[in-house]
Amino acid sequence: MSVGRHHLAWGLLAVVVIALVAYAEGSLSGYERTVLGFAGIYAMLAISLSFSNGLTGLFSLGHPAFMMVGAYVGAVLTFPANRKGFMLPALPEWLASVEWSLFPATLAGGIAAALVAAIAGFPVLRLRGHYLAVATLGLIIILRVVINNADGATRGALGLNGIPRHTDLWWIFGWLAAALLVCWRLKHSSIGRSLLAIRENEMAAACMGVPRARAKLAAFSLGAFFAGVGGVLWAHLLTNLTPGSFGIALAFMLVVMVVIGGSGSLVGAALAAIALTFLSEALRPIEQAMGAYGLVQIVIAVLLIAMLLLRPQGFFGSAEPSFLRRKAAGSRAGRPLSPGEEREV
């Protein structure tokens, strides 16, 4: 695909998304906008997880932990100052008197999550496979215990309610576009190729001079940053917050989105996240009518098993849709695929 057609495809996609968001904000009900907002947040989370896990071969389940950090940091910074004194009495004086707008609070939440990921990543990223998965699940539990016990600054298990509803579809899809742009540019750069090399053969990548530890920590921290951003948007969409919102079930859902979309495919992960969000909401009335609570989780688990059996690489594998790439797959016809490379679809 020529550069001009490549830019035209991205431009048309941006126009379509802007038109859909404008229509949704003006015509859909509050419930419908909330569901669409969750779809956008999940898509951003899936993109960041596909980048940090799919490109490097990590198996981290810690995204809910980073969402938790971002959500509480953003909520405390935007919480009305006249209510902090009696609801959050343990806050330091300088923090109790501030009341930020959404954008700087979102940046602060993302940066705080990235810092937690960088600190935790030094020991944790030495592990591999299911050992890394268990360690990152432990991070979720640790942060939930910390927040539950810091009730003077977070209200603990009671939850923090009355958070201003600053999040709308423009904020959500704006940050979704930012996450896709950043992760896309990095994936299709020398950094992305280094991460793919680590995923395919870590020892060979080290022999070629790829700084494995630094590259994995950077990808892990970038994924955590957008997870923190997603947590801030989540908190200001629901207007209430409890540590129980960010648990193992959410970690499982995010991994399912990445697996179904394709490990390493950014657009595939986003499309899978949106589809699963709408599927879950469509099944909830059936679940309630039948009294079969847990039906949504069963259906999603069956879909995951079917995908692993029939197409273990996911719908897109590690590739992206060809119409969004500068070069079509045909330009590489006749050349053998390199390890881990997928034909464009």
UniProtKB/TrEMBL annotation:
Q: Which residues cross the membrane?
A: 34-51, 58-81, 101-124, 131-149, 169-186, 217-237, 249-279, 291-310
Where found in the cell? Cell membrane
Q: Which Pfam families match?
A: BPD_transp_2
Q: What membrane topology term does the record carry?
A: Multi-pass membrane protein
Q: Which InterPro entries match?
A: ABC_transp_permease, LivM-like
Task: Give the top-rank taxon of the lineage listed in the UniProt record for this protein.
Answer: Bacteria
Where does it primarily localize? Answer: membrane
Going by the UniProt record, its keywords in alphabetical order are:
Cell membrane, Membrane, Transmembrane, Transmembrane helix
PANTHER family in UniProt: HIGH-AFFINITY BRANCHED-CHAIN AMINO ACID TRANSPORT PROTEIN BRAE, HIGH-AFFINITY BRANCHED-CHAIN AMINO ACID TRANSPORT SYSTEM PERMEASE
Q: What is this protein called?
A: Branched-chain amino acid ABC transporter permease
Q: Which organism is it from?
A: Aquibaculum arenosum
